[in-house]
Specification:
It is a single chain. By secondary structure, the chain is an alpha+beta fold. The N and C termini lie far apart (73 Å). The chain has a 4-stranded antiparallel sheet with strand order 1-2-3-4, with no helix packed on it. It has a domain at 35-93: Nuclear Transport Factor 2, Chain: A, CATH 3.10.450. Helices cover 29% and strands 32% of the residues. The longest helix is centred in the N-terminal third of the chain and has 22 residues, at 2-23.
Length: 101
Amino acid sequence: MKKIILSITLMAILGMAGAQASTISPAKFASCVSQDKVAVRPDDLPEAVKNTLSGDAYADWKVTSAFLVTKEDNSQYFEINARKGEESTVVNLDKYGKKVD
């Protein structure tokens, strides 16, 4: 009788362990793109970038911070944070002042 109770108990424990193992979902990993970000003073931005920012599209916007971002493929662009009143935006421009995605 003890062997039967012991066997049933062991099977119940193994059954619960198997059920718990099947409910664990595999870990999800987000892909991460390596980027290097260096702060740049707005006065030190290239002239082409300054010209774009002083144009009609960004006339009322004030640059609050800027960063030089180097992507994994060694391409670079400037990430510029700007404000106009309560609004804020991020503009990405290459060294020639052209918008990049």
